[in-house]
Design a protein that fits this description.
two-stranded antiparallel sheet; 4 strands; 14 helices; 338 residues
Length: 338
């Protein structure tokens, strides 16, 4: 198991290195290909030519790209001094950059946005796993029943309806709809968990539901298909013939064999959502990673865009490593084969 773990970590580190190189190269080269002055993406369009020249010199835009990359990575480890041509700031390690438009380190902004996205992702994941997997298992066990047909129909609707439509409908019904549904007359507003845990929970319910509807439908369909295949295996029929209890046959023999593809999907979905649920956070005006990235793109705040992209990629890689480790726990053949 230790050898398997070290191998996966080594592979993850290599992926992280490649991601950092590609991300840095894209964001440094793309503005130049359009003929734009890269300094304006760091300090804003109102920057004077003299300031832009000072920024270019401070950031080393005239140096070879590998040297710029080394300077950027060194800042993550040891911090670095940055300037917008008028003022100079020290970005403490780990430094992912500094937004002169907002006069704040990028990592500080990500640190404030990430708990919002984390709470949104974890709560939605609990809902879609609870309802999606449970309905998928019941549909497979009761194949052809009324419940199976109803669950399949609901899953089809859930997959077909886009998130922004569901979100806008929920916002309208819960804030301006019929009186018996107007549970949020003052609007759905994010409240920090440390300030008001109850208020945080209450205001997180609508975006949780909106985000979980799509994923619950996907997981229900996947669980049903996987369980139908597993329940037809010889060892499951043998378990039924031996007179084992239904919960043992379904849970220990059927569901456990169907878990690997579900674990893979959970890891990828959670990793992607931790990087920012852009539609949901923008729709509900929640200050998470997705809304931070959206605001940075609209303002062309390049340091923030780079920082969010790198952190999001790291979260996806971390999710994949966790999935690989869970594979080794769920199926010993995986870790012994490598």
């Amino acid at each position: 198991m230790v050898r398997y773990l070290l191998g996966r970590l080594a592979g993850a580190l290599m992926v992280v290195f490649v991601i950092s190189v590609v991300t840095f190269a894209i964001f440094q080269l793309a503005p130049r290909l359009t003929g734009a002055n890269l300094a304006f993406f760091y300090t804003g369009k109102n920057t004077s030519e003299a300031q832009a020249a000072a920024v270019a010199q401070k950031f080393g835009f005239d140096r070879p790209l590998p040297e710029q990359y080394w300077t950027f990575m060194s800042g993550i480890v040891a911090g670095r001094d940055l300037s917008d041509g008028a003022t100079e700031v020290h970005c403490a390690a780990p430094c992912l950059g500094y937004s002169f438009r907002q006069n704040r380190p990028v990592l500080e902004m990500i640190g404030e946005a990430f708990p919002v996205t984390l709470g949104l992702t974890v709560g939605a994941a609990v809902l879609w796993l609870l309802f999606g997997v449970a309905s998928g298992v019941l549909s497979a066990v009761r194949r052809g029943s009324v419940f199976d047909r109803l669950a399949t129909t609901v899953a089809l609707v859930g997959v077909s309806v886009p998130e922004f439509f569901t979100g806008m409908l929920l916002i309208y019904l819960l804030t301006s709809g019929p009186a018996w549904l107007r549970w949020y007359p003052d609007g759905i507003n994010y409240v920090a968990f440390t300030d008001d845990p109850v208020g945080w929970f209450v205001n997180m319910i609508p975006p949780w539901i909106c985000l979980a509807l799509l994923f619950a439908a996907l997981y229900a369909r996947l669980t049903r298909a996987t369980m139908l295949e597993t329940m037809g295996e010889d060892y499951v029929r043998t378990a039924w013939a031996k007179g084992l209890a239904p919960r043992v046959v379904i849970g220990r023999h059927g569901l456990r064999a169907a878990l690997p593809p579900l674990v893979t999907l959970v890891g990828l979905d959670i990793g992607a959502l931790l990087g920012g649920a852009v539609l949901i956070e923008t729709l509900f005006s929640f200050p998470g990673m997705g809304r931070l990235a959206y605001a940075a793109i609209t303002k062309q705040d390049l340091p923030v865009i780079m920082g969010v992209t790198i952190v999001s990629a790291l979260l996806i890689v971390l999710a994949n490593v966790i999935v690989d480790l869970l594979y080794g726990i769920l199926d010993p053949r995986v870790r012994h084969a490598r």
